[in-house]
Amino acid sequence: AELREARIEKTKTVCTYCGVGCSFDIWTKERKILKVEPNMEAPANQISTCVKGKFGWDFVNSNERIVEPLIRRGDAFYPATWDEALDHIANNLLRIREEDGPDAIAYISSSKTTNEENYLMQKLARSVMFTNNIDNCSRYCQAPATEALRRTMGLGGDTGSISDLAISDLVIIVGANPAEAHPVLSTRLRRAQKKHGQKLIVADLRRNIMASRADLFLRPRQGTDLVWLTGVTKYIIDQGRHDAEFIEQRVTGFEDYVRAIEKYTLEYTAQVTGLSKDQLIQTADMITSANSVAICWAMGVTQHLGGSDTSTAICNLLIATGNAGRPGTGAYPLRGHNNVQGAGDFGCAPAFYPGYQPAADEDVRAKYERVWGTRLPSNPGLNNHQMVDAIHDGKLKAMYLVGEDMAVVDSNANYVQRAFEKLDFFVVQDMFLSKTASFADVILPASPSLEKDGTFTNTERRIQRLYQALPPLGQSKPDWQIIQLVANRLGANWNYSSPKEIFEEACATTELFAGATYARLEGYKSLQWPVLPDGTDTPHLYLDEFALEGGKARLYPVDWTQPLILPEEYDLELNNGRLLEHFHEGNMTARVPGIDKKIPSSFVEVSPELARDRGIVDGTLVRIASPYGRVKLRAVVTDRVKGNQIYIPQLSAKDDETVNMLTSSHHDTVTFTPAYKEMRVKMEVLEFT
Ligand code: SF4
């Protein structure tokens, strides 16, 4: 019995399924996962988890795990030794660099891997292969929010903490569905509603679970959020109910802003958005009568042609009403993946070194040249959207991609898949033979979070430790070890023996993390950046000053971008998003038998009106087409959607169910984030049930 007891291990980990960053103990016996045990010390979630955090781990033992390196020969993959795979990679990447230059190769890092792994990935791209062609999937989601925060307040992170949301008088959720995508955060809001009567406004196309709990539900026309946000801000200013003292002391640009938004009258706003004047006035009244207002938003805002500008309109509303720079207030773009914040923080972006130090700044480059002991590239790098275009244009020949299923999660998936077919050489590092991996020349077997040490950074800028609970399966390895092997085979001489060493190097060169150490992150301890050299962290940004010139926030005028115009035959508005049970495209959760059994495939939500009109009932098979592709799905008739709007989850088990076969390559004009949420489609019934 003692021996049996001895083999049971309890390890602290951080959930890998969303940006809330729940942490808990995971009990294991050999490779068997016995239970997940939440812990009161966990800063983001305490004793809560959601279904994914609690039951979503069996994928680590899936017999579909890739457990040895694979090399393509013809149409098939064959097992190889690590040496063979690394030689094959080095020979091809060095050949392409020699023939076509360093910028002919691109690197995609993963927002599911650790901070340390992301740091190494950008270091490999820049210091070993001499290119700034490095990006991660935050480009697909919250890059517009980051841009908006940098424009208006200075730093690209949530302004406060999840605990601030719990004490706000009023929370506004725009284009987000935390009940499914950030469940524990939604639980905390639910408790706040019950405990201190917190008010909730939800603005969304779809009557999601949060909308059903809201005091006020706004359903503006697709792509018009900027208009109602600005219209409400103008109305508040016109009524003299803005925070004049706060603006006087802590804000620049007020007069210019007021002039710029002149056209956003209640009449204009109501006409464009379809909201009534009463709804707009009620929204303004709720905002001005609350002592503290926080706004959460996600991809329903950012994934539009004007995603950055709408995110900026959110920040403008907060600043004009004095709801920034004090507890209980602020801007909360809800990060989707568990480490999407960290991937950007640690430099996986073409324009930024770690800590958002500009790659174009010669002093920054000189600093890293000293630290890394090598020359560094001065050419601007490509973002992941530009990379796909560059492959089609024949300028980009090779790619090394870690833990990202771009072939299904990127918008206009057909276009992306055709690009991957054109690559001269493609390395994919993953746990499973994803759709993207099926295009690879070499697949390197990676380990999941439970098989590695490191840190993740959640949506509230909180850095947390995860500890290795299981040994890597087969010959798979933690990503940091694989990236180091690849770098060394390409000519580097790295000798990192642990993620701790990588973290120390990253923090030593980055003001944002100056005082972050593994000792200060031990167990359930955590740090929210910026972390001062003495270890003091920052649960709430801007309490004393904003991170823009003069320490002031800036009201930043923006204007509405008209939605995409498509031929009339595309008569339905397509919306898309997450499911509670699955994570994103489903590569991990679809390999958890209990979850897969519950939701085995994707579907399309159709409104009762549309269903009546087309003769559709639950289970009817329909074909949906856009100018970019088509899918075949079973219908679910529900009043969550209204009129001619349909909704398809991002779950992508099969090509002909992948919603991104329908979405386009149009994108936010500033950040290149795809306009996933702006598409019109047509639908035909294939089979009546
Ligand atoms: Fe994991 Fe997010 Fe659920 Fe927390 S809320 S358990 S981080 S998926």
Structural write-up:
By secondary structure, the protein is an alpha/beta fold. It has 4 domains: 2-61, ADC-like domains (N-terminal domain of TfIIb); 70-135 and 338-452 and 473-497, Rossmann fold (3-Layer(aba) Sandwich); 143-334, Dimethylsulfoxide Reductase, domain 2; 572-687, Beta Barrel (Barwin-like endoglucanases), CATH 2.40.40.20. The protein contains 25 helices and 28 strands. Strands 5-4-18-17-16-6-7 form a 7-stranded mixed sheet, sandwiched between helices. Strands 23-27-24-26-25-28 form a 6-stranded mixed beta barrel. It has a 5-stranded parallel sheet with strand order 10-9-8-12-13. α4 (115-128) runs parallel beside α22 (479-489) and α5 runs parallel beside α16. It is globular. The protein starts with a helix and ends with a strand. Iron/sulfur cluster is lined by residues 15, 17-18, 20-22, 45, 49-50, 52-53, 182-184. It is an enzyme of class 1 (oxidoreductase). In the C-terminal section; belongs to the prokaryotic molybdopterin-containing oxidoreductase family. Its EC number is 1.17.1.9. One of its GO terms (molecular function) is formate dehydrogenase (NAD+) activity. It comes from Alicyclobacillus fastidiosus.
Quick summary of this structure?
Its EC number is 1.17.1.9. With 689 residues, the chain is α/β, with parallel strands linked by helices.
Major sheet: arrangement of strands: 5-4-18-17-16-6-7
Structural class: alpha/beta
Strand content: 15-25%
- Give the strand tally: 28
Mean residue pLDDT: 95
- Rg calculated over all Cα atoms: 24 Å
Unreliable parts: none
Overall 3D shape:
globular
CA distance, first residue to last residue: 57 Å
CATH architecture of the largest domain: 3-Layer(aba) Sandwich
Q: How many domains would you count in the coordinates?
A: 4
Organism: Alicyclobacillus fastidiosus
Keywords: 2Fe-2S, 4Fe-4S, Iron, Iron-sulfur, Metal-binding, Molybdenum, Oxidoreductase, Repeat
EC number: 1.17.1.9
GO molecular function: formate dehydrogenase (NAD+) activity
